[in-house]
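User: Okay, second chain of the day. Same drill as before: sequence in, structure tokens out.
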Amino acid sequence: MTEMIQATRPSVDTDLYADDVIRDPYPVYQKIRDTAPAVWLPENDLWAIGRFDDAVAALAANEILISSKGVAANPRLNAITTPNILMTDAPEHRPLRKVISQPVMPTGLAEVKPRIQETAQQMIDTLVQRKEFDGMTDLAQILPLTIVSELLGLPEFGRQNMLKWAAATFDALGGDNARAEDAFPTIMELRAFCADDVRRDTVRPGSWVARLFEAVDEGSIDPSLVPMFTRDYIAPSLDTTIFATGHLMHQLGNAPDQWEKLRANPALIPNAINEAVRLESPIRGFTRYAKEDYDVDGVTIPKGERVLILYASANRDERRWTEPDRFDVERKVSDHVGFGHGIHMCMGAQLARLEMRSILQVMVEKVARIEVGEPEFELNNVLRGFRSLPMKFVPL
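Assistant: Same drill. Structure tokens below.
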């Protein structure tokens, strides 16, 4: 009977987490969008939503497509998930998010903006003088690693391992494959660190994590949530911004006409950032669990099944965007889902935008032309980005 039911489902026979699909996912996303509003992926044992309007609606349907049963595409991680901000539902989600998001709200960002701008200025001044450099390690990683690790206020061991822990977290959130399996020991290391080594006396006073202990004192959160919220700060605050910055540099280097438009009109900088995130979404997508039957434009996702909402596919949906595969700094793209949508929209989006904006604001005054070579992709189940990106700045 189960086989008969599955045979009637619109399906696409592909493994979204296979190496070749990670390297070039867009033909598969196109096939998913063309097949149906929601398609069954037998290789991954879940549904996928790839069209823009349907993805937005699904992300807003948080009372039916819930997060509290995990957002991974593999059952093992969902089974061991402990409460955190990404995996809570309303009404519990809002007060917890209010506590953890305070540092990345406008007031909090105003405090760190001068430091970010100063670091961006020093970085670009140095890179302009070099014949060539790696756009990932020498540019994209600098602000997140310098600023975020400083803001978190972690003990030294934590600062040294943040990138490793973040990458493993996203690998484990993907399909049930070797990459996810290999990530589990690293995730356990992160959990042990947050549980045992993150204490009032080991974190920097005034830091983001120190504020969590202050929230405990104020009665805003339970003490048991501090380790989980510390993980919430560590995991998403680095790779996503790093990869988005790498994509931004790559797109501008491959489209010199767009760089000229940006130099001629720096007011387009925020738009260019949104366009880069739309075109190459750093997070491919997260799953939700269907608490009830859920209709996707005539296709029913049955109660008790899991659905992957593909941000990266939705952001290239030709139903929403004209010439969706083209990078255009003048495109109006404020409604893309590269940072998610709804109650789980990325808390650090404004910090990421501030970091990228600070870089571009210096570049338009210093760089005449951006030259990029062939990037090397990082193979990660959920993230899309480069391991390395050969670059050169031609100075003004």
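Residues 106-128 form the longest helix (23 residues).

User: Thanks, on to the next one.
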